[in-house]
Amino acid sequence: MKAFCPVCGGEVELPEDVMPGELLECQSCGATLEVYEQESAFKLREAEEIGEDWGE
Amino acid sequence: MRKVEEVLLRLLKAYSPTGREKQAEGELLKISRDLGLEAEVDEVGNVLMGRGEEVWLVGHYDTVPGKLPVAKEGELLKGRGAVDAKGPLAAMIVAAASLKDTPVKVAALVAEEGDSRGAKHILKNLEASYVIIGEPTNTTGIAVAYRGSVKILLECRAEASHSSSPGKSAVDKLIEAILEIKKAAPGASYSTPSAAVTLIRGGSGYSTLPKKAIAKIDLRIPLGTSSSELISKLPKPPEGCKLTVTSAIDPVSVPPSSPVPRALARALLKQGIKPRLLRKYGTSDMNLIHPKVKSIAAYGPGESRLAHTDKEKVSIKDLETAVKTYMEAAKELSKLKQT
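ok -> C-alpha cells follow
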C-alpha cells in the first residue's frame, strides 16, 4: 500500500495492517508523518513535532 | 485492590537506592512467585522474570537516594521510584503475568541510576530481538531518542599558602577549568551539549589557600555527536589539573516505524489514546541496549518531570493504561518473530 509524503511528494510504503494515527518517517526526506484515513484511503500528513522531555 | 496497585505499593515500600537494591530484590522474587512467574537473580542482582527470549520488558528497580513516605492518596501512589522507575516496572510485571499465551521476559535491572552495571551485565548474553525500556513517558509518550552522556572527574592541585597571599588555589584552578568546560558545552538547547557540575569539593574553610579540589561533571550529548567527538573537544585543563573521563555513552535514536515504537503506538491507538513521540534530555539503559537488538523504545506511566524530585507520584489509571499498552505491544512484537 502506498501513500505520498506531504513534505517532499515522495512515495511512502505503508504496512498492510496500518492504522489511522500511526507515525512513521518518509524514507526520502525524513519527515515524521501521521497516517489518517480519508474516503476509505490512507493518507499522510505532517505529524506533531517530536516533543522534548526531561530526564530518563 | 487492583493488581498493579498492589505490586507497586510492595515495591515502593522496599526502598532501594542504587547500591542497596537487595531489599527490593527479595520483594521482587516474592511478587513473581505470587503472580505465577518464574524468576531468577543473576550475578549482579538483576531479577529476570517470566519466560521468552525474543520480547523483553526492561525496567530498573534501583532509585535515586532519598526515601519518601509511601502512601496511597485517592487514586495516586506516592513514594521514591513511583515515577522513576518502579511504576513502569510494576506495570511490566503485571503485564507479563497477564499474558498467558505470549512468552515475554521482564528484566528488573540494578544500577540504572549509577554505572548501569545491570544493563552492561545482561548485554553479555542478551538474545532479545525487541526490547521495551520502562521509563516514565507521561503515559501517552514513546521515547525514540535519548542523549548520550560523558562523565568526568576534574582534580586540581596547588601549593597551600596563607589565604591573604596572591596566587591561584586549587579551587581557583578548578573554577577556571569548569568555566572552560561549560563554554564547550553551553547546553542552550536540546541540540547543544550540556555540562552540569554534580559535585564540588575543596578547601577547609580556614585561612589557607586550598591545595586540592575536585569536581564531577555530567555532560550530555545531543544526537549527531558521538561521545568520543565530545571528549576530543574538551578543553585542556589548566596546569595542576587532571581531567579523567569516567564513563562515555553515545546518544541513540530510533525511527518511529521501527517495530517497537510502532507496536507501542498501535497499543495506545487501540485504547483510543493518541501516541506522542518524545526525545529525552537524559540517558538511559536504552542507549546501551540499542546496538544489540533489532528494535527498542521506551515507554511508561508517570509524569517524567517528577522523576528524582520529592513529589514522585503516579495515578492508578496511568498504571493500568501502561499494563494494557505493554501487553498489547508485547503480543504484537511476539507475532513478528513468527513471520
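The longest strand of chain B covers residues 148-157.
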